[in-house]
Design brief:
20 helices, 6 strands, mainly alpha, two-stranded antiparallel ribbon, two-stranded antiparallel sheet, globular
């Protein structure tokens, strides 16, 4: 029986899985089962259960205030895609297996890592498995949110959020659940998402703006904890007391709210009317973490642009700050001990260089040699990989630098490749649009080019600055500015580097 019969929908969930003979004795066998929540949600790239194609698999449109937005994606490079013919090995000791790289994909896992991922599919709610494996599963669920079994994928993600507290996972999943609910006009699913939040880590990772939109849409008031959490959004910058004395600050804020608002809750609708909502600036919010569909965005109103809401919340926080200052002074004068909140220290993990993962990444780069666009993402993965081991040997930091420069030297070709692919995609879907659609889109792509992040610039600037080579770091800043990458940020960085150069001379 094939190892991937676990994905077949049937009454019998458990199957016997033979380990590869080269890795383990021929008689060695174990049993895993696909969790019932995941039936029909795992993408398979080959074999009799194949359910994924590299052809165009989705094209959809929607309107916002009379403006038509079209979503589409090509069936290529899905990171969660499972291939049944790739080698799998049962590790002797799972704790010694290196965690997946950043932007992980199933095909780039080592044989031992693939085995661990299959175990995750038998229990996706196992918090003992590294979050990198959870992300691979999550990428596939995101694709279902866009074009697949939306409701089942949505609810599995809710259950994953309930047990996996990783900040990045919480942030990406909150974004995707809210925005795809908007995309599919499923307001009741947003409410289901809001009602599912029962842990602090589920709440703190949500975008302040999206949280405000959800609260506004369903008349959910802001609590004192919400106002404090969104202090930065309300342009309150002096958060020293919030960090050191969170309980005292919250109690003082409640007092201020009761005095000024006659309530310990903030009704957003009192500040943003339907008329005011129409005046708000909109911005394109990225929906997905999945690299094969992360070009999709959704236009959302920026609630923090509402002057009245921002001003009133800022006043509440500033008044609370002054009250806390007075209260602390009074407590000190009276000799009352003031409890200070301290963040728990994290245990440091011992890094062991993963040669198998290095080999997989290099092979991935070799496979992408004919596509400058695909090479760009392979370079990023290699940069991340070697940078992770920078403290183990200068060899690894030098490898990171090498792949950063290779990526930068590839940018012009990458732009051409990206433009060509986008033009092909636009032409495929132009038949669904008006006569001028194709020309408008091509002109926009020609003008904007690839607008994604190029991490090589920032990474090189950081490396050279830490090495004390400020001149090289400045050159990198100049290159990033010339390329149009985070211009203001690199201008600020260059100014700081120039000050260091002057202080050194």
């Amino acid at each position: 029986m094939s190892i991937f019969d676990i994905f077949k929908k049937s009454e019998k969930k458990e199957v016997q899985i033979s380990a590869p003979k080269k890795e383990i004795a021929e008689s060695a066998r174990t049993t895993i089962s696909l969790h019932e929540d995941l039936e029909g949600l795992v993408w398979i790239g080959d074999g009799k259960f194949k359910n994924y194609s590299r052809e165009v698999v989705h094209q959809s449109s929607f309107e916002v205030d009379g403006t038509k937005f079209t979503y589409s994606f090509m069936g290529a490079d899905e990171p969660s895609l499972v291939f049944t013919e790739q080698k799998i090995s049962i590790p002797e000791n799972e704790t010694l297996i290196e965690r997946p790289s950043y932007y992980p994909s199933y095909s780039q896992l080592s044989p031992e890592q693939k085995w661990i991922y299959l175990k995750l599919l038998s229990n996706p709610y196992d918090t003992g498995i590294d979050i990198g494996y959870v992300f691979i599963l999550y990428y596939g669920l995101e694709r279902h949110l866009l074009c697949g079994d939306f409701e089942n994928a949505f609810r599995v993600i809710l259950k994953l959020r309930d047990v996996h507290s990783n900040k990045s996972f919480q942030a990406y999943s909150a974004n995707a659940l809210i925005l795809t609910s908007m995309l599919h006009k499923r307001g009741e699913m947003i409410l289901e998402f809001m009602n599912s939040i029962d842990k602090e880590y589920e709440l703190t990772a949500i975008s302040d703006n999206l949280y405000l939109i959800c609260c506004y849409s369903f008349n959910i008031p802001l609590l004192p904890k919400d106002v404090i959490r969104m202090a930065k959004t309300f342009e309150f910058k002096n958060n020293n007391y919030i960090k050191k004395y969170p309980e005292i600050f919250e109690k003082c804020l409640i007092d201020v709210m009761m005095e000024q608002l006659k309530s310990n809750k903030v009704e957003i609708n009192n500040y943003i009317t339907k008329t005011e909502l129409k005046k708000l600036r909109t911005d394109s919010a990225p929906i997905f973490a999945n690299t094969s569909i992360n070009e999709n965005t959704y236009p959302v109103p920026i609630f923090s642009d509402n002057f009245k809401l921002k001003k009133e919340m800022n006043i509440l926080l500033e008044t609370t700050h002054e009250n806390v200052k007075q209260k602390l002074a009074a407590m000190k004068k009276s000799g009352i001990e003031i409890p200070v909140s301290e963040s728990p220290k994290k245990k440091e993990k011992i890094l062991v260089f993963n040669k198998d993962q290095e080999s997989e990444l290099i092979q991935g780069l070799e496979r992408n040699q004919n596509s400058a666009f695909a090479k760009h993402f392979s370079y990023i993965q290699l940069q991340d990989f070697y940078y992770k081991y920078r403290e183990l040997s200068t060899e690894y930091i030098n490898k990171c630098i090498e792949y950063c420069f290779l990526d930068i030297s590839n940018l012009n070709e990458m732009q051409k490749d990206f433009f060509q692919k986008e033009v092909e995609r636009i032409k495929q879907f132009s038949k669904f649009e008006d006569d001028g659609f194709e020309q408008r889109k091509i002109e926009r792509i020609r003008k904007e080019g690839f607008i994604g992040n190029i991490p090589a610039f920032n990474r090189l600037a950081i490396i050279f600055e830490k090495q004390g080579d400020f001149e090289k770091a400045i050159e990198i800043c100049d290159s990033a500015i010339a390329y149009g990458q985070s211009v203001e940020s690199f201008k600020d960085k260059k100014e700081k580097l120039l000050k260091k150069v002057n202080a050194k001379s």
